[in-house]
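debug: dumping io for the single-chain case to check the tokenizer round-trip. Nothing else runs in this session.
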Amino acid sequence: MGDHAVGLVNEKKIFIGKKTDFANKHISLPYQKGLYKAIKSINPDLIIAEGFFQWTPWALLYSRFHKVPLFISYERTEHTERNCPQWRLLYRKLISKYTTGFLVNGNLTLSYLRKNRMDENKIIISGCMCADSKSLSDKLRLITKEDNESFLESLKINRGKGLIFLFVGQIIERKGVLELLKAWQKYIRIFDHDCLLLVGNGTLLPVYQKLYPDSENLKFIGDVDYSLIQNYYSIADVFIMPTLEDNWSLVVPEAMSCGLPIATSIYNGCYPELVTEKNGLVFDPLNEQSINGALEYFHRPDINLQSMGEASVQIEKEFSPERAASKIVNGLKRE
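debug: decoded output
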């Protein structure tokens, strides 16, 4: 972004309550020295703030003093906000009164705002979250069959008759990895040729590795440089995201842009827009039968994984960075 990016450092935060992976379990009070001065130095025609808190109060202060429109980029859903205390909701409603409009991800965020009676006359734009899909898909096209075979060999995976399920994300409680691992142990008793790849790092990685050691059916890959992630998407048959709480899991559209069928959680805010019967299904990660049913689904004789992957690519195109940018700009111009 060059000179368009103004970096600020040394943000201070005070945490109240037990810090966890889940939303609304603790309070974070941030202070960024020089923030208001930085906004003023830009002399903006409008301001886009992320969420109702963090740096938003300073953006609102500038907006009121200088009569500049303030838009809030918001991505929470009713599920992610299920533990939201009443005082926080009242605060959000207050901020909403002075907000020009909202930039939101999708229908679940829209529903949450409506349920809490945020001003319906505010400008609300859907589809603002997107992945770096073009870069990934371009890299994927350069990978040959021989490259995949060599990569599988390096991972000690024998594709055989089985399917390769891929998870990409943090290895933390919120991502539902433990629930998937528990269900996987029963699943592979029947589908013993399948393999689950878990790509990512996190505080619970060593714990889960000890509970479920690597085998021919299960591989903990650990941290992977983003410049190499397409290699894992390329060898996978199905992408699975068992999250217990996510606003809009970006790895889902990433996997879709790489032509993968999707199995994702009902607690993932992106599923209404991105996952249909054409390219995958949703499941409840808190229900072991639901997880296993989702895994087994891709073995059905009437399921064509290639067609589902092609459908994923087409659906994801509607949520490309270009489409998202166009929706945002057009919405702001209308104001």
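debug: round-trip ok. The longest strand covers residues 12-16.
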